[in-house]
Every structure is written in structure tokens, then in C-alpha cells.
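Moderator note: this is an archived Q&A kept for reference. The question asked for a predicted structure of one protein chain; the sequence and the answer are reproduced below.
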Amino acid sequence: MALALEDIEFLRSDRARRILAAFAEEDLSPANTIPLLSRLRKSLTAREASAALKTLTLRAKSRSKFPRQGPSMLFTDDALQQASQRACRRYRGRLIESPNALDLCCGIGSDALALAARGCQTLGLDIDPVRIAIARHNAEAMGLDARFEAADVRRSIPAGYDFIFFDPSRRDETGRRIRDVERYRPPLSLAKGWRADEICVKLSPAVDLRQLTAYGGCVEFISVAGDLTEALLWLRRPSAPPSATLLTDDAACLLQYHAVEPVPIAPPKRWLFEPDPAVLRAGLVRQLAQELNATMLDESIAYLTADERADTPWGRYWAVLDWMPFQLKRLRRYLVQRGVGRLTVKKRGFPMSPEELSARLRLKDGRESCVLVMTRHRGKPIAIICREPTFGQNE
């Protein structure tokens, strides 16, 4: 059931708040859906019970994005999916020094509220009046001063705002992801007609960079603790190659393009390094290799290798035990002789899926475990046998 304005009005009532608080710790697994609805129906109508259960479920799902405020917020399914990660909201809030901001396609208001929390006078606009009602509730729940209005940003937007944040929908009516920036809802080209000192557009991290060449500015790929979450297009910044930003709980690390000498190609050394996905999407593997004093296994493969580990947040090291040109029988014999029965298979540039390779290796009786990295060296397939990492160690 899609939430309507009447549902939001009910969910904001004292009666609904008491019921939501009473059921906050209930088992929300699918198997318990019908029993929960039956219990809610004892004091609610069928529609109210459905709205209450949906809200309980979405609040549980919101914990990673809204760990503190989630239990008092309202959501819709798609708006919660589109809402930025907490680390991303805080990061953008620290970057923006504008006294006023416009959040276009604001959804449930999370980015507008992050800007308001930094003292920015913020107005959020969205075409969906239900989302606007939810955003107003969320502002009240967080005790933040931000305004929200229902409006179609395709027609016009208010003037006089120094910063514009634009977060178009990247899913179609069926929920499938949209890759083409001109099929975003609204399309990216709409931003060309806006006037502001800075315009920041949230994009899919899978965006085709060739579609952005006509816009100028620069693209920033954002990773939160190693998970590539979003891309940002900064339209008023000088044109530059893409950059990568890694967000952790207390820091933001930036990697930018700079000219480097060709990175040597070498066989696996003592350590194998897997770069953060933001580095891959920004095309900065060679820049990172230079920083880490590392070499590449192959011109087109993003694994790096080095004799010594560097202190870096930009990826993960694996201790290399051995490596060999790939030959199935030889690899199986090697693993059986060492008692390996449990494998974690990673691959890059290798045609066989991890599941297919594991099935064909037929390892059953061994008690040892290892990480098997299937990739290429100078264009030829190789297998790299790495140590299974110990909990808490980055190796």
C-alpha cells in the first residue's frame, strides 16, 4: 500500500505514536506479518494497521542511514532507498558554506535537514505532496528549521539561492535503475538553466562519464567505508578529471588525478592490494599505485602488488602465499596437497564465475582455508593463493 496524505496525518497523531512505540521491538520478519497485522487491527482500521506496519518496517530498515533519528521519522520505500547515507549527508554539510540552499527533489528531506543542521537556511521542493508532508514531519522530529513545499521543479524554481542540491530519481516506475542521465526523473539537463554559486547533482555511481562531458565541472565518486554509494557532479567547479573520496566515521580522504609515469607490470609480490571501488570508478588506479609504491599485474587489471604494505585507507591488502599460471588440474592438486577444503574465490578479468570454479575444483575433505584470487598477469590467467584474513587484521 502506497502511503497517502491521510496516512501521514494518522501516523502523526498521538494515537499512532503510542501504538508505534508499543510495537517498536516486535519481530518484523515476513513470517510474522499476518500475526502483527491481526494484533494491530484490534485497535486500528485495516488501512491504519497497514500504514503502521509499513512504518515499523521502514524504521527498522532506516537504522544504517538514520541510526539515531530513525525511530521517530516517517518514510516511503523508494524515498528511503534514495536517501543519502549519513556519512554523505554530513560530508556535504561540511563542504557547503552558503547561507541558503535549495534542495530539489528533496524526498523525505534528509539532505535538506543535514544542511539545516549546519545553520543553512534551506528550502526543499518535491513534486510528491506525500513526501513533503513526511519531510515536514521529519524536520519537526529532529527539531530542525527547514521549509518544504510541493512543487514541480521542471517548471520553475525560486531564485536567490547560493547553493542548489539536485537529487533526481534514478529508478523508473517499475523500480528498475535508470542509467541514462537524460532519463532521470527529472533529467539532468534541467540543471543547465539554473543559477547559483554552486550546483551539486547526485548521480548513480554507475553513471556513464561520457554523458557528462557537455556539463563541465567535475565528478566525485563517494565511498563509505569501502562501499561505493554515490557520485556527485559539481557544476560550478573548474573542469577536472574525476576524483575519489573515502568517508569513514571521522575523516574524509581525497584522491585526485595527477600525471604519473607508467606503472611497471610485475608478477605477484608479497602483498596483493585491492583498491577501493571509488578509485576504480574515478580511474585513479595508477595514481594510487604511485602513492603505495606498488606495481600492476596487468595493464587492464586493477589489482596492485607490492613487497611492503603502506599505511592507507584506500583498499585492502592480502598476504600472498603463492601464485601460478592457471591450469585447473595443477591448481586442484596444489590445494589438495595443502589440505585446503574451504575457499573464498575473488576474481577480476577471469572468465569463470567463483561458483563454477569452486565446483570444478571439487575440494571437500580439507580443513584448511584460503583466499583464491583469479586474475591476469600480462594478459594470461593466473591464480594467486592468499592467506585467509584474521578478524581485525587487514591482510
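Archived answer notes: The two ends are 47 Å apart (CA to CA).
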